């Protein structure tokens, strides 16, 4: 479990650790303002596009083998990012990093579920996994600020190298070996090409909306192409003898509902990190380190809930009963951020919103992971894990692109009406936070109407039948 979480934490940290170092990277490597965003985006495109394929490969050739391969790719690419002396080399290395991150992340949740077959222990393990997933982003902001200010931006990548090497070596020693079901029982090369192309093109279209706009020919054209590829993939899966994504996975309303709710929750929640960072820096005048410290209470709250309280609640009341108040708290926290003033105070205006966000996410994330994996069989756990992570990446990319665009357009409208720069910026952030609150509110409505807690989750621990045989070992 420690090895799996170390690998996952490294990958998640890298999604945000770069953000606070972007000004230093731009100055050192000569990025233009328009091309600088690709330091982040070029990582997201392969990461979001390869999760599903990587998860299925884990089912076919063994999740341990895929996990170690992903760690090796990610670690090597991190070293190349750190030694980059030009923009082209950094972008190419970041793309490879995204590939390694996808391969590593896609099988991790499936391996966690396989390690802990009994419901009570599984709830605890998913709580730890969820903490790593959700708190890693906030930790990345803090680590990025400290490393960039104290040493240089190169070290936000170098720090991955020893962690990745140790995690890969330990994974080879402590993780149980698996044979998988074999490539002959599910290669589906055509399906792999279709879904990877669709997801990469879809993520690219979303992240580029900040440059081209939502109604531009570029966005509509590439979006239509991505949708056509995705529809072709679904058609292929319905007819293929050995599909890459068995559609039986979605027969469970809990699995299907959890995937959609995950995308909506992440779309509203993860964008808060980006927008709240901008508010702290551009309106309240925080530097990089103080910005990371300002977001850190979210990680503390998530950890306090995910690592102890949430698993016990899920075991006692079921994941649905824990998910609903979690989503409600996230909705409320974003609504509070929607009222931050231009002359605000961190303690009075920001912190009261961060605490319900952290508590809410600490309740909601383990519950969703439990529901999403509730109907996954051992032969499909890899693809279910990959799909769960795919929805997280698509939701975060869509939410960030949509809400940042809305914030910018509302700010411009306020400037045109004669508002000063600080008030206009704050008004844009307020508007985006309110929209994010509505998105998570929609997720809450879906959760209340679609989901049902699995019967095994509601059964008292004493009544749970012990698992025997290989699973116990």
UniProtKB/TrEMBL annotation:
Pfam families, sorted: MFS_1
Residue intervals passing through the bilayer: 33-54, 66-89, 95-116, 128-147, 153-175, 187-207, 213-234, 255-280, 292-309, 321-341, 353-373, 394-411, 431-451
InterPro entries per UniProt: MFS, MFS_dom, MFS_trans_sf
Membrane-protein topology: Multi-pass membrane protein
Record domain Major facilitator superfamily (MFS) profile: where: 1-455
One cellular component term from this protein's GO annotations in UniProt: plasma membrane
Name listed for the protein in its UniProt record: EmrB/QacA subfamily drug resistance transporter
Gene source species: Streptomyces echinatus
């Amino acid at each position: 479990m420690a090895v799996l979480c170390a690998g996952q934490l490294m990958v998640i940290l890298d999604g945000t650790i770069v953000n606070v170092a972007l000004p230093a990277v731009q100055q050192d490597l000569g990025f233009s303002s328009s091309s600088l965003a690709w330091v982040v985006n070029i990582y997201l495109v392969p990461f979001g596009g390869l999760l599903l394929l990587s998860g299925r490969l884990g089912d076919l050739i063994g999740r341990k083998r895929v996990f170690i391969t992903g760690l090796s790719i990610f670690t090597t690419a991190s070293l190349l990012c750190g030694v980059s002396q030009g923009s082209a080399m950094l972008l190419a290395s970041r793309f490879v990093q995204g590939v390694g991150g996808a391969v590593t992340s896609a099988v991790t949740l499936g391996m966690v579920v396989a390690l802990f077959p009994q419901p009570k222990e599984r709830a605890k393990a998913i709580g730890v996994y969820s903490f790593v997933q959700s708190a890693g982003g906030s930790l990345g902001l803090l680590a990025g600020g400290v490393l960039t200010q104290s040493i240089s931006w190169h070290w936000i990548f170098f720090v991955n190298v020893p962690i990745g090497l140790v995690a890969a070596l330990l994974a080879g020693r402590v993780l149980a070996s698996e044979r998988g079901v074999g490539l002959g029982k599910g290669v589906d090369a055509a399906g792999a090409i279709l879904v990877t192309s669709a997801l990469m093109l879809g993520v690219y279209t979303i992240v580029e909306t900040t440059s081209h706009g939502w109604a531009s020919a570029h966005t509509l054209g590439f979006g239509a192409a991505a949708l056509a590829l995705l529809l072709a993939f679904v058609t292929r899966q319905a007819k293929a003898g050995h599909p890459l994504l068995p559609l039986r996975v979605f027969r469970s309303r809990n699995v299907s509902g959890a995937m959609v709710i995950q995308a909506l929750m992440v779309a509203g929640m993860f964008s808060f990190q980006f927008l709240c960072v901008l508010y702290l820096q551009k309106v309240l005048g925080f530097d990089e380190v103080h910005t990371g410290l300002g977001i850190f209470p979210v990680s503390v709250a998530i950890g306090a809930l995910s690592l102890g309280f949430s698993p016990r609640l899920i075991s006692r009341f079921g994941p649905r009963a824990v998910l609903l108040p979690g989503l409600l708290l996230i909705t409320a926290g974003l609504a509070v951020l929607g009222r931050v003033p231009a002359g605000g105070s961190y303690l009075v205006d920001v912190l009261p919103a961060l605490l319900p966000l952290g508590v809410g996410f600490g309740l909601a994330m383990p519950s969703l992971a439990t529901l999403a994996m509730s109907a996954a069989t051992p032969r499909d756990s890899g693809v279910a894990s990959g799909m769960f992570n795919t929805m997280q990446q698509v939701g975060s990319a869509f939410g960030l692109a949509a809400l940042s665009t809305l914030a910018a357009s509302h700010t411009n409208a306020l400037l045109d009406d004669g508002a000063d720069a600080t008030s206009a910026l704050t008004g844009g952030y307020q508007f985006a936070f309110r929209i994010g609150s509505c998105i998570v509110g929609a997720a809450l409505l879906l959760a209340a109407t679609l989901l049902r807690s699995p019967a095994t989750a509601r059964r008292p621990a004493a009544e749970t039948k012990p698992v025997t045989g290989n699973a116990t070992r």
